[in-house]
Amino acid sequence: DAGVTQSPTHLIKTRGQHVTLRCSPISGHKSVSWYQQVLGQGPQFIFQYYEKEERGRGNFPDRFSARQFPNYSSELNVNALLLGDSALYLCASSFQGGDNQPQHFGDGTRLSIL
Amino acid sequence: QKEVEQDPGPLSVPEGAIVSLNCTYSNSAFQYFMWYRQYSRKGPELLMYTYSSGNKEDGRFTAQVDKSSKYISLFIRDSQPSDSATYLCAPGGDDMRFGAGTRLTVKP
Hints:
Chain A is mainly β and 114 residues long. Chain A has strands spanning 5-7, 10-13, 19-24, 31-37, 44-50, 53-57, 64-68, 74-78, 87-94, 104-105, 109-113.
């Protein structure tokens, strides 16, 4: 079975631009979470979606938004990009997104802001 | 104080050594505990998952949780060069929190 897939794998943008990152969860998984991982740090939680509803939001500005589609895939959008947004953006899926559901990660989108 | 503290290393051991990786957390609401392994330029890979105090063994890996002292450990027996990676502890409750990761190198 395919794991979590993310696209694109790499992306270069300039300050002020907008970016959309995409994620397809493991087949049968209904919950998707997004994380930002800066070099040398652990992943930081951005959003969790379950059945197209937002279930959780981390401490990120409103420039970050996300949505989940009926097929459970998801998009992360970031507006007005800043240099500090350069990071690896990870998507993780789980079956239900409840407290005891282990999350499985994709290999991420590496975003570079110039 | 960070919610999850993890010694960043780097940690270098010879092949065959027993490796001990440790993590402390501050939020007593955390109910389940995971260890992930992350190779360079890859996403984290789930290694161990437990939600009770005590030990859980899977092959060469043993996860140990002590909720009373908020202390999590991962032991790797007979370490191999292929174990060279960054290891992330991730306690969770309503959502998951990650440590900064410990970078491990196993030398042949």
